Amino acid sequence: MPSLPKIYQKSRWDFLSLEKNGTLQIEGLSVQDIAKKYGTPVYVLAERSIRERFRDFKKSFPYPKLRVQYATKCNSNLEIMRIANEEGIELDASSVGEIILALLADFAPLEITFTNPNKSEQDVIFAARLGIQAITADSFEDLQLIESAGKKLRKKIRIFCRITPLIETGDYSTRRLQFGVPYAQYKRAMDMAMKSKHLELIGLHFHGPYIYNPRIYFHAAKKLFSVAEYLLREYNHKIRFIDLGGSFPIAHGEIQDVFHPRDMGRAFTNFFIKQAYKINLPLPYMVFEPGKFFVANAGVGLTKVISKKRANRINTLIVDGSTYAFLPDPLVYHCLYDILPATRMNIRRTCHYQIAGCTCDNIDIITRNAYLPTIETGDLLAVMDCGAYSNTMASNFNSLKRAPMVMVNQHGVPRLIRRRDRYSDMFAPELDVLKVADPQELKRYYDLWRVSLEKLWGGKKKKNGIQKAKSAPTFLNQKINN
Question: What is the CA radius of gyration of the chain?
Fold first, then answer.
């Protein structure tokens, strides 16, 4: 099996290979076969890569009470969650919807935490009655909300309290971070939680923006242990969980030199243990909740070139994916993907292309400068490292269907883990309330493409050598006349 040309070789893509004709393979499965079976655009995930990332992270921290959670928000697919469960990973849910998904993926309530700054009282009551591990309080108002829910339930609700210290190092800063109780006000929050009859404070939490420097975790941990020391001194209360959040970096696009958790794991573990011993706190659970780290590099987005143009000295490829319904990151984060010429991998690169999506919007640009071989209409492009957030942030702009998702195992066997959207899915929220169409009418429109056009529109009888067309179907005439 031919290996990738050197320019495309990256260790995180060890699931890629080539056919003899230069077509890309994912775990030995041709991308052309994937596109033929599932259509394009389509997300493809390498299962082996995801499992290895789960295992590598756990091995990186030799701590006796390590709890690793998967941040469901970055890709809430049930199959990925099921794999996390199999690998001994817990779940960090950001909504009641994600809690329900976790239950569907066979997680026990005590393996789920609920971390979100926006909760209704109904959300809190649902999570508390379910018996999840903890609900994270993000503010004083959040503490009051959870307190009120506990009062109505006549029980104590287990909580983590999110604290945000001011950390500034290099170009990294938490100064504008919207999450958590400011560190300067932590005593007020701790006093409020400890004096409540309906709050059980079991953990402290930090979640910073995307972290490129491992020292940030050390700074955050030191601050959280200071809060834990205050609780010991003032209330003789022993915190059981210290949650450092996620935000571990990944290599993607032009960002290649990033640290791996194993680069900090042993040193951080020793530091963590020393901080606990320093304040005479029994070793708490060390919690991390990465998301992107686990799944981003395992994802490949396949999209087909539907046209090519040259205007104003710019070579443009129009593809059947978009930054709205398929790859939103360029719009949201202005990130740059690695894009591979999936059906021309063995041809020398000679051209710079702007790659545009298929929507009627001039900002729908996936990249403005992809260096590729000469690309022709019908070729496939592989957009790399798109396993996180792409699907969960995608929309139905232009009433486009969101793409299906396919998981390929280490033996090259694919399975569909999310189908392509249907119009009935997309339009149901409006049809349900406006009552403008019944399900059968919608189905007739949806099934039009399956009907033989000649049978639908054409007639077999000819007069003077000219084939006469039938009139349009009755239900279409009715719509036109109305």
Answer: 27
DSSP helix, strand, coil percent of the chain (3-state; round to 5): 40, 25, 35
All domains in the chain, ordered by first residue: 6-46+296-418 (2.40.37.10), 108-290 (3.20.20.10), 452-482 (no CATH)
At position 406, the amino acid (one-letter code) is: V
Query: How many beta carbons lie within 10 A of that of residue 261, not counting itself?
Result: 21
Cβ contact 242:286 at 8 Å: yes
User: Model-level pTM?
Assistant: 0.90
CA gap 345, 398 in Å, rounded = 32
Nearest alpha carbon to residue 137 among 203, 187, 43, 93: 203
Please give the share of the chain, as a percent, with pLDDT higher than 90: 79
Give 450's DSSP letter: G
Cβ atoms 336, 253 nearer than 8 A: yes
Q: What is the pLDDT of residues 323-372, one digit of tens each?
A: 999 999 877 767 778 999 999 999 999 999 999 999 999 999 999 999 99
Q: How far is CA 243 from CA 140, 204, 298, in A?
A: 19, 6, 26
Average pLDDT, the chain: 91
* Strand 199-205 to 29-30 pairing: unpaired
Contacts of 33 (CB under 8 A, 6+ apart): none
